[in-house]
Amino acid sequence: MTQQNTQPEAPAASGVTITGLHKSYGDNEVLKGIDITVAPGEVVCLIGASGSGKSTLLRCVNRLEDPNAGTIMVGEFEATDPDVDLDAMRRQIGMVFQQFNLFPHLSVLENCTVTPRKVLKQSKEAAEAEALAQLDKVGLKHLADRKPDQLSGGQQQRVAIARALTMKPQLMLFDEPTSALDPETVGDVLASMRQLAEAGMTMIVVTHEMGFAREVADRVVFMDQGVVVEEGPAEQVISNPSQPRTQDFLRRVLNPLGE
């Protein structure tokens, strides 16, 4: 008898190629010629001090910000093409922000079904089945009828992850998803992200969680003042960085008391 494969099917994955990316706000040049490639199924963490351009870079990938120069390829889409079908491209991208951005008047289940029903034109039954499956993956299926204000911050962020996954994205962008959380709830969110990474999702994560970056990321990119200072395997960059600026940043982050 042939043994059936019981492993869950890995999601489709889109790679990202960023070339010569520049972004300015008036006279303030935030991104100064960024070159980053993320392979399909790869997890890349962006680290660096606040104001280094990490979140702006992430928002450019999804075209929430319009770059001044450079190209961004997301799968087969050229995000920086003026004629790109942004709606079609964004259907392949899930994004989780610092704030949860849940609709307060809707239940958890309704928050997770409104976009598939409106954008993908799914039936109520199909959308709810998919939403419950994704909520189950983040351990919150039993809270599907709750309103957001009845949940902890960590639970709301996990709902935001489940909501993004209901659109079956090929790329997930995380913009400091744990920065607004109490320390006790951070672990549950990171565990959900780890599970997603292990399933083969392409992920770009802006984070200050060095433990997560070391254990889950395939590569770490350190940015400072709008440029990529150093990138490489996570363990190498975090444990043995080669650039003085990276060394100084990690020394302050990993040993804030300077002992």
UniProtKB/TrEMBL annotation:
PANTHER family: AMINO ACID IMPORT ATP-BINDING PROTEIN, GLUTAMATE_ASPARTATE IMPORT ATP-BINDING PROTEIN GLTL. It is found in: Cell membrane. Pfam families: ABC_tran (PF00005). It comes from the Bacteria. This is Amino acid ABC transporter ATP-binding protein. Keywords: Amino-acid transport, ATP-binding, Cell membrane, Membrane, Nucleotide-binding, Transport. Residues 16-250 form the ABC transporter domain. GO terms for molecular function: ATP binding. It is a peripheral membrane protein. Belongs to the ABC transporter superfamily. InterPro entries: AAA+_ATPase (IPR003593), ABC_ATPase_HisP-typ (IPR030679), ABC_transporter-like_ATP-bd (IPR003439), ABC_transporter-like_CS (IPR017871), MetN_ABC_transporter-like (IPR050086), P-loop_NTPase (IPR027417). It comes from Nesterenkonia flava.
